[in-house]
Predict the structure.
Amino acid sequence: MNSSEYFKKAREIMPGGVSSPVRAIQPYPFYTMKGEGSRLFTADGESLLDCCGAYGPLILGHACPPVKDAIRKALDNGWLYGTPTPAEIDLAEILIADFPSIEMVRFVTTGSEATMAAIRLARAYTKKPDIVKIEGGFHGAHDGVLVQAGSGCTTLGQPDSAGIPADVVKHTRQVPYNDPESLVSVLEKNPDSIAAMIMEPVMGNIGPILPKIGYLQEVRKITAEHDVLLIFDEVISGYRVGIGGAQQYYNVTPDITTLGKIIGGGLPLSAFGGKREIMELIAPAGPVYQAGTFSGNPLSLAAGVAALSHIHEMPGMYSALDAATSRIGEACQDKGGSFVKLGSMFKFFFRSSPPENYSQAKESDTIIFRAFWEKMLAKKIFLPPSQFETNFLSLAHSDSDVEYLSSAYASCLSV
Ligand SMILES: *Cc1c(COP(=O)(O)O)cnc(C)c1O
């Protein structure tokens, strides 16, 4: 069967034909049979240069040999025990060594679970009910963070999905990114109710959008002054921006950090961590309940340890990736939009200047984006199918891949 036939069948038995909404490319998504290095191989016999990287985890590329070997080795011993395993200590030690703000870790399976638990933990620790998030910020698909942006910094949140009670999202307030004054104003108007501010230090789910100089430091100072915990959602930026994540890159210390994507080496694994005093509230050490059948599953841990160890063995890796996206950026100069990058994350926005927040990002021309995206696909390049999803480069992208990408950008943006 080809992709079109698969999708026709899938649509009958799965809502929208997919397991996650962004994958429902129209008129039909391509179906992947295999991933290797920088490429995806489709059911239609095509080989595509992949700049989606499964939306973030695959910084080492597809089927990276040391990760594959580690999974194979773990597989021989079975794949789920329902007991502790030594590998979770190994991975926890790596995370704690790489993130000075993390003294203790809890492993979960998805990033959504990590942010959900981190918020619950912050509420328990501060004994306060409400949270602040960034307008347009994405922290997974659970009720408290699925709150629509654009409704103004001091208004109560509107749910971003059917099925979420207004009673739930009234506890979620929003402020625009890169706007410390709005944060001060929300915290001053709600002096005793805000438990935590949750944010991606670099907005990875809409671009990327980068912090203005000093913004994250300001947020740290403001939250500390108001006894509000700062949760950095580094599910994308952890090990993507560098070892130690965006908190190390920008030198700002959060109270709680969530990690996911890269830390599982491509298998489902996420985590949250922070100061010992806070983390010891988590069950069974403390009263904040959190649990999961697949938490810390042996295969994901093996993949994660192998991936992070491999990353540690390549100190030049991040600057090489940064140089590669710079080359793509050069090819995008004077093309009527704005190229934004941080290390291996990059995006061309169809907007005259780089967006500083969600409402500016939303001004991008999504119709031109779509036409551009199709032109790139015709050149056998798979970009995430949205103006608002970050492109990712991996270590598996060769010099000639980067060369090819740069010239494809230059020509597809020229018409
Ligand atoms: C992907 C992502 C999540 C959700 O992670 P899942 O594993 O998809 O549940 C949460 N926060 C950020 C910043 C993410 O990029």
User: Anything to note?
Assistant: The chain has a mean pLDDT of 96. The chain is about 35% helix and 15% strand.
